[in-house]
Design brief:
Helix content is 34%, strand content 17%. The chain has a single domain (17-205), classed as Rossmann fold (3-Layer(aba) Sandwich), CATH 3.40.50. The protein is an alpha/beta fold and 266 residues long. It is globular and about 55 Å long. Strands 2-1-3-4-6-5-8-7 form an eight-stranded mixed beta sheet, with helices on both faces. Helix 1 (17-33) crosses helix 6 and helix 3 (91-97) crosses helix 4 (99-107). The structure holds thiamine diphosphate and iron/sulfur cluster. Iron/sulfur cluster binds at residues 11-12, 15, 17, 49, 119, 123, 198-201.
Length: 266
């Protein structure tokens, strides 16, 4: 299957987005081999360097607006439950501008997948700090160092009720493919946080490579998931655990909508 689009790729050489793109294409190929119709796989993105991914994969796609990927793909899923919908967002896009949408998509357990290109900086707008930029980091908008504490999106998503929460790294192609595939196959809201470098504005590649570890705990254990999530607060120290923090099966928003009247008390 040809997943090339012919669009000119404008990412900087060495950007972590290339690895995310390659892993996702493998997932699409596998899904189609396993029987999912090519035309039933739909992707959407927000705004940022990450967002160009929709131009680079030959599947049905939608370039949405900043932070609005979760409602965009939620609408698609509600309108046509047969679709497999996957959203791509940046850390600025998903954890900043659109964070309320992400929280509410997790809360209602809608059957969508979000993949976050977490380079911990605003790439497209040339290097302002984002919600996951470490404290003290000098950026274009924090020339004396970022005074804020970074947001820990794993804890945020666990707290919001996400039923699949995973983290991977753009340096781990096979692990990334596995996490994306598990997320897409999960019935309910799934999020994969992909830690990656931005070669031009926050090149933390060596730090990421030196501090990532694969987890091996029981992903149905929420307490353990929280413990693991607390070991790295997106700062400059601590173990960056990779793998599935938490997975739970529970009725999805679509299923609950369909049996709506059974939910009413009278
Ligand atoms: C409502 C709105 N606010 C601000 C912008 C400007 N803007 C475009 S991309 C971007 C940040 C993108 O950062 P991130 O989501 O981390 O993606 P990256 O470029 O790093 O992939 C901003 C602030 C916009 N397009 N729309
Ligand atoms: S600015 Fe950063 S995120 Fe954007 S393409 Fe270049 S390396 Fe990638």
């Amino acid at each position: 299957m040809n997943l090339e689009t012919g669009a000119c790729n404008t990412w900087c050489p060495g950007c972590g987005n290339f690895a995310i793109l390659a892993s996702f294409k493998k997932v699409v190929e596998e899904l189609v081999k396993e029987g999912r119709r090519h035309e039933d796989i739909v992707i959407a993105s927000g705004i940022g360097c990450h967002a160009k991914i929709v131009d680079y994969v030959n599947v049905n796609s939608f370039y949405s607006i900043h932070g609005r990927v979760p409602p965009t793909i939620s609408g698609m899923k509600v309108a046509n439950p047969n679709l497999t919908v996957v959203g791509f967002a940046g850390d600025g896009d998903g954890y900043g501008e659109g964070v309320a949408h992400l929280v509410f998509a997790a809360k209602r357990n809608i059957d969508i997948t979000m993949i976050i290109h977490n380079n911990r900086i605003y790439g497209l707008t040339t290097g302002q700090f984002s919600p996951t930029t470490p404290q003290g980091q000098k950026t274009k908008s924090t020339p004396y160092g970022n005074p804020e504490y970074p947001l820990n999106p794993i804890k945020l998503m666990l707290g919001a009720g996400a039923t699949f929460v995973a983290r991977t790294s753009s340096f781990e192609l096979e692990h990334m493919r596995q996490m994306m595939k598990e997320a897409v196959n999960h019935r309910g809201f799934a999020i994969v946080d992909v830690v990656e470098p931005c070669l031009s504005f926050f090149n933390a590649g060596d730090y990421i490579k030196a501090n990532t570890y694969k987890m091996n705990h029981d992903p149905s254990d929420l307490k353990k998931a929280w413990e693991k999530a607390c070991e790295w607060n997106y700062t400059t120290e601590g173990k960056i655990h990779l793998g599935i923090f938490y997975r739970e099966e529970k009725p999805t928003f679509g299923e609950l909508l369909l049996k709506g009247k059974n939910l009413r008390k009278s």
